[in-house]
Amino acid sequence: MPGTSASERPQVKRKLELDNAVAAELSGTQDEVLRTLEENLDCSIYLRGNVLTLEGDDDAVDAAAQVVREVSDLVARGHEIAPGTIQAIQGALQQHESPSRVLEDVVWRHRSTKVAPKTVNQKRYVDSIRRNTITFGVGPAGTGKTWLAVAMAAAALSRREVNRIILTRPAVEAGERLGFLPGDLMAKVDPYLRPLFDALHDMIDPERVSAHLERGVIEVAPLAFMRGRTLNDSFIILDEAQNTTPEQMKMFLTRLGFNSKMVVTGDVTQIDLPSDQRSGLISVAEVLDAVDGIQFIRFGGEDVVRHKLVQRIVAAYAEHQQRLAPELRPAAADRKRA
Question: Which segments constitute the PhoH-like protein domain (predicted)?
Answer without folding.
Answer: 115-317
